[in-house]
């Protein structure tokens, strides 16, 4: 949609209005509170909904830069309305774009705007884009990809403020420099939507804290961006913000809730231990990652080379593989995702690297 290749109708999800599903929709209202003892969800129109089982899937909201609420031309990108507003600004003549944040949202916006011939500056306080996730070597590859396509990449510098008289005119950076802009897109992460659950008795810590099965309380499960749970496969409590994960976790949480309602107590049978997976399209590169890398993980190239258009790398620590990333090598990352689920070892990826000559 941001490039104009898609119209809004093409993004529509199935409506779920099939009568066979026997659903009651409560649209245009918000949940404002939860009472676990009474098994009640309170709504902003004063009503209360009683439940036997509850799935919390309230997602997350984008972080915003303070002081920009009343400044036209400053956007986040989360909803259909957001992308439509950015598209309208471009159609109205915006030509100088500043993207704040070089994560996946920021990088994809930068690529989409450059493909339309706009002047783009991408600002990132980290030494390299995505270095917290992919490490600095792969982050440098991402930075060079954007530079090669004409993006002014500003690394290691934060935003001091966004200035303008009613409408954005420039972005002031922490190093004292300024960048002229008539469109700013802020991509600096999200915050789980848990405010309505304060005081409910649920454990809230960067999301709704669940057990290893996605159960947050008796009769209550959580799924998607809002859920945080211990994933034994990676030995950490995680919250995952990827599209594919939201679909998979929702299905698992529904099964877990039904099992709880039937009195099933076998936790091991319902442990949720996925290999997270996502993709990102930037220019002519399809970037795919399976697993959960850490910034200090060891990294090895197992196919191609980092300066090629196609390569594959593995991340690992403590002699186990934590993730595999591929650029324009879709079949490899699919295969390695299955292998990660089966317990892929570091020695196995080193053998692959040796076999490929990487």
For this entry, give a set of tags.
FAD/NAD(P)-binding domain, 5-stranded antiparallel β-sheet, Enolase-like, domain 1, 23% helix
Describe this entry's structure for a reader.
The protein has 358 residues and is an alpha/beta fold. Among the domains are: 62-190, FAD/NAD(P)-binding domain (3-Layer(bba) Sandwich); 284-356, FAD/NAD-linked reductase, C-terminal dimerisation domain (Enolase-like, domain 1, 2-Layer Sandwich). The chain has helices at residues 80-91, 104-114, 131-148, 243-261, 330-341, 346-356, and strands at 31-35, 40-43, 48-50, 54-56, 60-62, 74-76, 96-100, 119-124, 152-155, 159-163, 170-173, 178-180, 183-186, 190-192, 208-209, 215-217, 220-222, 227-231, 236-238, 277-282, 285-291, 298-304, 311-317, 320-327. A hairpin with a 2-residue loop joins strand 20 (277-282) and strand 21. The chain starts with 30 loop residues before the first strand and ends with a helix.
């Amino acid at each position: 949609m941001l490039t104009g290749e898609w119209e809004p109708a093409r993004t529509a999800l199935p409506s779920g209005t099939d009568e066979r599903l026997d659903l009651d929709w409560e649209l245009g209202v918000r949940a404002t509170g939860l009472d676990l003892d009474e098994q009640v969800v309170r709504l902003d129109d004063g009503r209360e909904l009683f439940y036997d089982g509850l799935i919390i899937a309230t997602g997350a909201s984008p972080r915003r830069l303070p002081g920009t609420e009343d400044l036209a031309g400053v956007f986040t990108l989360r909803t259909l309305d957001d992308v439509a507003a950015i598209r309208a600004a471009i159609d109205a003549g915006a030509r100088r774009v500043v993207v704040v944040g070089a994560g996946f949202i920021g990088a994809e916006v930068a690529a989409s705007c450059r493909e339309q011939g706009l002047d783009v500056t991408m600002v990132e306080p980290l030494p390299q884009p995505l270095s917290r996730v992919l490490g600095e070597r792969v982050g440098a590859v991402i930075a060079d990809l954007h530079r090669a396509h004409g993006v002014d990449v500003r690394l290691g510098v934060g935003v001091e403020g966004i200035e303008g008289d009613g409408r954005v005119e420039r972005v002031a950076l922490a190093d004292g420099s300024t960048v002229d802009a008539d469109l700013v897109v802020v991509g600096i992460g999200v915050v789980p939507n848990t405010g309505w659950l304060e005081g409910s008795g649920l454990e809230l810590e960067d999301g709704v804290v669940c057990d290893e099965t996605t159960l947050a309380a008796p009769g209550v499960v959580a799924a998607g961006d809002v859920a945080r749970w211990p994933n034994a496969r990676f030995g950490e409590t995680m919250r995952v913000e990827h599209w594919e994960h939201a679909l998979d976790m929702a299905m698992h949480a529904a099964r877990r809730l039904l099992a709880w309602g039937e009195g099933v107590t076998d936790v091991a049978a319902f442990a949720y231990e996925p290999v997270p997976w996502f993709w990102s399209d930037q220019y002519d590169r399809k970037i795919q990652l399976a697993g959960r890398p850490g910034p200090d993980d060891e990294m090895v190239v197992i196919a191609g080379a980092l300066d090629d258009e196609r390569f594959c790398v593995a991340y690992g620590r403590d002699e186990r593989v934590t993730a595999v990333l591929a650029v324009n090598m879709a079949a490899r990352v699919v295969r390695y995702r299955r292998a990660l689920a089966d317990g892929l070892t570091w020695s196995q990826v080193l053998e692959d690297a040796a076999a490929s000559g990487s």
